[in-house]
Design brief:
This protein folds into 2 domains: 1-62; 86-194, 2-Layer Sandwich (Alpha-Beta Plaits). Helices cover 54% and strands 22% of the residues. The chain is built from 5 helices and 4 strands; from the N terminus they run H-H-H-E-E-H-E-H-E. It has helices at 9-61, 64-84, 91-105, 136-147, 166-176; strands at residues 108-119, 123-134, 153-162, 183-194. Strands 1-2-4-3 form a 4-stranded antiparallel β-sheet.
Length: 208
């Protein structure tokens, strides 16, 4: 520093230029380079996050077909449950089902009466009283067919009695070889429907 001639204009000019260069370099480093580096790091982080998200999406895309199949199966299961537990009891269809198995089993129906319904927590029981005349084997076939209905059923209060025309039936069976009617049977048949839960009505107005 002692050898610097502070009165020399060239020296002063060189010193000023040096300071300006240093200041310019510092400005570029601090206000241009550093923000550029930080922005680059942020963009790289976003790129990494986007690539990870893309990988997750590609993994899920490979499961779309599987999920669609599961959805179709779930909808089919739901429709089967709706058939098993309809929202309304369809008495004509129940009677139609019963007559179909009665015809196939050879049982003679004497009575089919709806006996009302009772509500439970999540479902409704629909009761029917039924009286038929039948042979023992016919009766077993009838109950087996009722058990194969595509909706739940329950048989209760089963009562068997001697058929009043059994002598005539036995005589016909000996003459013609058909299966005789030997018993009179009464029982209750219960089917089930789903209970529609109504949403609570919204409160009108506020407190007075």
């Amino acid at each position: 520093m002692k050898n610097i001639d502070w009165k020399d204009k060239k020296t002063i000019f060189a010193l000023v230029v040096s300071l300006l260069l240093i200041g310019g370099a510092y400005y570029i480093y601090d206000y241009v380079w550093n923000p550029f580096v930080l922005e680059e790091q942020a963009l790289r982080s976003e790129l990494d996050a986007a690539e990870q998200e893309l990988q997750r999406i590609n993994v899920q895309k490979s499961r779309i077909a599987e999920l669609e199949l599961q959805l179709v199966e779930a909808e089919a299961d739901f429709e089967r449950l709706r058939e098993m537990f309809p929202e309304e009891e369809k008495v004509p269809l129940r009677l139609q089902d019963l007559y179909a198995v009665l015809r196939s089993s050879g049982v003679q129906i004497q009575k089919f009466n709806p006996e009302g319904r009772s509500e439970k927590d999540h479902y409704i029981e629909n009761r029917y009283s039924i009286v038929v005349n039948s042979g023992y084997h016919m009766l077993g076939y009838l109950f087996a067919e009722i058990a194969n209905f595509n909706y739940p059923t329950l048989i209760t209060d089963l009562r068997l009695g001697r058929y009043s025309g059994i002598a005539n039936e036995l005589q016909k069976a000996e003459s013609h070889g058909w299966t005789p009617i030997t018993v009179s049977v009464s029982f209750n048949l219960t089917t089930y429907t789903s209970k529609v839960i109504k949403a609570p009505a919204s409160t009108q107005g506020g407190k007075k």
